Amino acid sequence: MNRDHLRKRRTTPAKRLVLLSLSIVLIVFGAWFSTTNASTFLKGYLLFKTEQAGNDSHTTEHIVKSEPREKDSEKIPVPKVLYSEAPEKGDTIGDLQIPKLDATLPIFHGTDEEELEKGVGHFAESVLPGESDNSVLSGHRDTVFRRLGEVGKGDLLVVETSAGKFTYKVRQVRIVDREDRTVIVPKPKATLTVSTCYPFDFVGYAPDRYILVADLIKSE
User: 73 lies in a domain?
Assistant: First the structure.
């Protein structure tokens, strides 16, 4: 063996001791650090940076989403309370005017056959006409809504009640299955949804519904 080889063999145990000592020091330091405010501070800082990054992302998203949109600009302020008392089932609550058809139809509170035989029925679980949210009206395709298929996007629907005169503009025409419950879901602004059976010339119980979705554009 040469001298260099012997020297390496003699110094190897010393190096091992140094490494062992260093490992012990690191372990002890780690245990101390995890039980002190330093650890809490570091965790808090990392959490802050993570939340800050998330907030920056949300802020950017919010700015993009809050840019003016045409449909937002068309929202009409509506008082929270328009009617002093709720109508009873079967009560006449107003008239539905359809200028395109030159028609004025009475509206009754409720959508049972008793109400629908007399005119347009107001779905009792929806808000009253003119109020914020979705006011839903229904009628038979072979009586009051015989010509409703002639009404489409851009046409006006006017509802006059004890609370005032409310003009709506048709935004969307939908044809849905008769079991589709999206017709009566809440809306973020004053909306009038008018529904009747479809097809109009169907013999028997029609399988679909013809839907007009209109936004409030004027209150008097």
Answer: no
